[in-house]
Write a structure and sequence with these properties.
The protein has no helices and 6 strands. By secondary structure, the protein is mostly beta strands.
Length: 105
């Protein structure tokens, strides 16, 4: 396996929001790209603490290298669901923690 690169973005207003996700997995046989879209499913935080936003959605393989008929893909992901968790400090602008969980369908 070479490397994994993730980009995410989104918007939130009160208790609604959306997130987009791009994931690239670089392997010896080439690069795989996945796209995902999700919605805000929870906002948590207590007085004096930061705020945590959790998005949930689905992702799918949208680009892959062309393989010869005798080559098996070395990336097992195809499509599934994701959960993106973003934690912000009290100012609600400074991101201090991110986690991404992928579940293959």
């Amino acid at each position: 396996m070479g490397w994994v690169h993730v980009e995410y973005w989104g918007s939130m207003h009160d208790s609604s929001g959306m997130a987009g996700l791009w994931l690239w997995v670089d392997s010896p046989e080439g690069s795989y790209r996945f796209d995902g879209r999700g919605t805000l499913i929870s906002v948590t935080g207590a007085k004096g603490e930061g705020v945590t936003y959790v998005f949930s959605g689905s992702y799918a393989l949208v680009e892959q290298p062309v393989l010869s008929s005798d080559t098996t893909a070395d990336v097992a992901l195809n499509d599934g669901t994701f959960e993106l968790r973003l934690r912000f400090w009290l100012d609600a602008k400074s991101l201090y923690s991110t986690s991404l969980k992928l579940s293959e369908a």
